[in-house]
């Protein structure tokens, strides 16, 4: 059986239960949209994604106060931009769009070992997966020349993939009109700018040990499924 590499984080029980209930209701003949449920799911998802991709690696890497502040500001900027998109779109979605959203949500989650928990993630190509693994292996071997540039390139590529899967694909799937598409486009632009900004400001100033810990952390976000 062929497997694919995903960049994924472990969903909380709250996120899984909210999503699972919504998916089943939409499949089992729901008669009306659930804007508050959609908003709760997506708000919780954004919080957990920001923790996985920004806040946790910052704490693992032992960043200084200035670097932690940069990461925190980026996460806050992304959270606010996403909140605008979520709030405006959830209220406008009809039942058919809720059903489509449920299928999308089901498509980006998969169970962990023995169904003990669930992942939320997006697929990446094998070249990008190998880049992440190779970077971690080089750092473990003590070869740090060029690793900061490589880590920046890797994280920018992951940022682009995440925006494609978490913003662009659902926007296309849900068939938003021009106003909501513009709102979403601003959210995407803000998220990319904030992500690229923190990558460009933090990564070049990491110590070798911090580069190692960062490379190992992001490698471990890769999951085969």
Task: Give the key terms.
alpha+beta; 4-stranded antiparallel beta sheet; 72% helix; 225 residues; 4 strands
Overview of this protein structure:
30% of the residues are buried. The protein is 72% helix and 8% strand. Strand 2 (109-111) and strand 3 form a beta hairpin. By secondary structure, it is an alpha+beta fold. The protein has helices spanning 13-27, 35-60, 65-92, 95-107, 126-140, 147-174, 178-202, 208-220, and strands at 5-10, 109-111, 118-124, 222-224. It has a four-stranded antiparallel β-sheet with strand order 2-3-1-4. It has one domain (5-224). It has eight helices and four strands; from the N terminus they run βααααββααααβ. Helix 3 packs antiparallel against helix 7 and helix 5 packs antiparallel against helix 8.
Number of helices: 8
As residue ranges, the low-confidence spans are none
pLDDT averaged over residues? 96
What is the CA-atom radius of gyration, in angstroms?
Answer: 18 Å
Helical content (DSSP H or I, runs of 4+): over 70%
Distance between the termini: 10 Å
- N-to-C SSE string, H for helix and E for strand: EHHHHEEHHHHE
Q: Specify the structural class.
A: alpha+beta
Number of strands: 4
Main sheet: strands, sense, barrel: 4 strands, antiparallel
Shape: globular
Ordered list of secondary-structure elements with their pairings:
Elements (H helix, E strand, L loop, with lengths): L4 E6 L2 H15 L7 H26 L4 H28 L2 H13 L1 E3 L6 E7 L1 H15 L6 H28 L3 H25 L5 H13 L1 E3 L1
Antiparallel strand pairs: 1-3, 1-4, 2-3
């Amino acid at each position: 059986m062929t497997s694919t590499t995903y960049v994924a984080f472990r969903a909380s029980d709250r996120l899984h239960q909210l999503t699972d209930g919504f998916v089943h209701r939409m499949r089992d003949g729901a008669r009306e949209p659930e804007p508050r449920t959609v908003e709760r799911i997506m708000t919780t998802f954004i919080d957990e994604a920001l923790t996985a991709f920004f806040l946790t690696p910052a704490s693992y890497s032992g960043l200084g106060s200035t670097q932690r502040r940069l990461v925190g500001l980026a996460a806050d900027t992304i959270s606010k931009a996403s909140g605008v998109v979520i709030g405006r779109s959830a209220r406008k979605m009809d039942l058919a769009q809720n059903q489509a959203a449920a299928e999308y949500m089901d498509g980006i989650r998969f169970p962990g070992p023995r169904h003990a928990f669930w992942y939320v993630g997006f697929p990446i190509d094998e070249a990008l997966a190998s880049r992440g693994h190779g970077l971690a292996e080089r750092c473990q071997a003590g070869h740090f020349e060029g690793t900061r540039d490589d880590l920046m390139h890797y994280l920018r590529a992951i940022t682009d993939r995440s925006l494609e899967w978490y913003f662009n694909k659902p926007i296309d799937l849900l068939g938003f009109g021009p106003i909501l598409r513009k709102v979403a486009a601003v959210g995407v632009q803000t998220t990319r700018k904030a992500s690229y900004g923190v990558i460009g400001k933090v990564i070049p100033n990491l110590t070798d040990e911090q580069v190692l810990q960062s490379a190992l952390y992001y490698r471990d976000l890769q999951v085969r499924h």
